[in-house]
Amino acid sequence: MSNNLLAGKKGIITGALDENSIAWKVALKAKEQGAKFVLTNAPVALRMGGIQELAKECNTEVIPADATSVDDITKLYTESKDILGGNFDFLLHSIGMSPNVRKGKAYNDLNYDWLQKTYDISAVSFHKMMQTADKMDVMNNYGSILGLSYIAAQRTYPFYNDMADAKALLESIARSYGYHFGKRKNVRVNTISQSPTPTTAGSGISGFDSFYNFAEKMSPLGNATAEECADYIIMMFSDFTKKVTMQNLFHDGGYSFTGISEELIEEMK
User: Fold this and answer.
1) Left if phi > 0, otherwise alpha if psi is -120 to 50, otherwise beta: which for 223?
2) Where along the chain is NAD(+) bound (predicted)?
3) Which residues are the active-site residues?
4) Is 63 known to sit in a ligand binding site?
């Protein structure tokens, strides 16, 4: 249902790979709510997914960009401004990848060159996107910038490996840059810590199915779906959250503050 929450707003959505992606669902909802935006992903990811179909459905364009490259980000912003006809009201950072996870390296046997890639892709790219936007002055007053995180940034989940460290860095960058962007431009910066979600990226983590079921039993409201996360992101892009910044916002059905549930106690009996 459209309430035109984003009428007149312009932005960039990263990371839409396929219809299971949170970013994919954000794009559909942003279009429904009246926004204009450009889609982007790394060149290698564009060959794997169906983002061109999404672009057609959203009446927009796809600009390939490696978010770890400042030159690529600069080109992305320049071309997006031309397409959209002005500066941006929102940016979504939905980017994360660990070579150590993909290649089955345990946390106590990390390849450190791969670890640096994990940090650069999954966290430092967030800083690069914001710093480049800041220097180019492409964000509108009271714009909204969001990154997607996970509770493993605060708690230990052995299967999440070095991605947990990357998410902790991502959240720290959101707080630190949120202060500077807020002071200079009234731009708000937040992260959303989502429930385990069966996206293409999430499902690739070892033990994901078991933990997904565990979190479902722990959460009073159950796991939040990708669709529900997209709704939350749309709200964060809207003018209803103009004074929310530097926060890590849990969107997990109450999992993050539940010690144990009755369902799990019954199972242990």
Assistant:
1) beta
2) 15, 21-22, 95, 167
3) 150, 160
4) no
Structural domains in the chain, CATH included, are 10-268 (3.40.50.720)
Whole-angstrom distance, CA of residue 60 vs CA of residue 39: 7
Vertex 60, ends 54 and 63: CA angle to 5°? Answer: 85
186 pLDDT tier (thresholds 50, 70, 90)? very high
Length of the chain in terms of residues written: 269
Residue 181 pLDDT > 90: yes
Rounded to an integer, what distance in angstroms lies between the CA atom of residue 173 and that of residue 137?
A: 19
C-beta of residue 193 within 8 angstroms of C-beta of residue 153: yes
Question: Rounded to whole angstroms, how far apart are CA atoms 167 and 160?
Answer: 10
Q: Is there a contact between 190 and 249 (Cβ–Cβ < 8 Å)?
A: yes
Q: Is 151 annotated as a binding residue?
A: no
pLDDT of residue 13 exceeding 90: yes
* 21 marked as binding residue: yes
Q: Do 73 and 67 form a contact (C-beta atoms < 8 A)?
A: yes
- Residue 223 DSSP one-character state: P
Residue 95, annotated as binding a ligand: yes
**Residue 143, annotated as binding a ligand:** no
Please report where in the chains the tokens 């947990």 appear, as a residue.
164
> How much of the chain exceeds pLDDT 70, in percent?
96
Q: Alpha-carbon dihedral of residues 115, 125, 147, 220, nearest 10 degrees?
A: -10
pTM exceeds cut of 0.85: yes
| 178 phi-psi bin (left φ>0, alpha ψ -120 to 50, beta other) | alpha
Answer yes or no: are the C-beta atoms of 131 and 174 closer than 8 Å: no
